[in-house]
Write a structure and sequence with these properties.
It contains 9 helices and 6 strands. The protein is α+β, with helices and mostly antiparallel strands and 196 residues long. It has 2 domains: 88 residues, Winged helix-like DNA-binding domain superfamily/Winged helix DNA-binding domain (Arc Repressor Mutant, subunit A, Orthogonal Bundle), CATH 1.10.10.10; 103 residues, no CATH class. The strands form 2 sheets. A 4-stranded mixed sheet has the order 5-4-3-6. A two-stranded antiparallel sheet has the order 1-2. The radius of gyration is 18 Å and the shape is elongated. It starts with 8 loop residues before the first helix and ends with a helix. The C terminus is likely disordered.
Length: 196
């Protein structure tokens, strides 16, 4: 059974990328860029693996997204078989978001983590996050996502207040699978708590 998913270098490369970033869901064009697999071959591989249950597929705004299925019975075995094919570097979407030096926290969710029910795809915390840098970031992320990226920005005080109050919106983001690209707020908060 496993041999059907590793019988070509392209399939191993695809699975290597998906297992390297298991928390991420990918639009096919991002996977093409990440793996170098042709636009003709990739949809067939994704469809085959989704039908077999190796990948989770979800649709948002008529776009298909794929993510490795964490409940796969032979998850560990398949991961081990493709570990040599893992792509180098960090998750491309996270790499883009890390460029926002002024932000205090950045969270990927929604289409980036296989959670289409979450109303946002990116949460940014910090001051002065508007302007050309944000527009450029969103434009680049939208190429990865294959559609408009819904984002929310708030300052540190509002974010901390909403977390403390168990705000429904923040709870929905944090209670669902998400990727904290960076969080400069939590360590400082822990230090304050230790002093009290």
């Amino acid at each position: 059974m496993l041999n059907a998913f590793i019988d070509s270098k392209a399939k191993r490369r695809l699975l290597g990328a998906l297992f390297k970033f298991p928390e991420r869901s990918f639009y096919p064009s991002e996977l093409r860029e990440l793996t170098g697999i042709s636009a003709r071959a990739l949809p067939l591989m994704l469809s085959e693996m989704a039908k077999a249950g190796v990948l989770r597929m979800f649709i948002k705004r008529r776009r298909k997204y794929f993510q490795v299925n964490p409940h796969l019975d032979w998850y560990d075995e398949l991961k081990e078989l493709v570990s040599d094919e893992a792509v180098a570097g960090v998750d491309p979407a996270s790499k883009l978001v890390k460029r926002l030096a002024r932000a205090k926290a950045a969270i990927l969710t929604g289409v980036f983590t296989g959670q289409p029910q979450v109303e946002v795809d990116l949460v940014l915390v910090g001051k002065g996050l508007k302007g050309a840098r944000i527009d450029k970031l969103l434009s680049e992320l939208e190429k990865f996502a294959g559609q408009e990226v819904n984002y929310c920005e708030m300052d540190e005080e509002e974010y901390q207040h909403r977390r403390h109050m168990s705000d429904r919106f923040i709870r929905n983001v944090l209670d669902n699978p998400h990727i904290a690209v960076f969080d400069k707020l939590t360590p400082r908060q822990r230090r304050k708590n230790k002093k009290n």
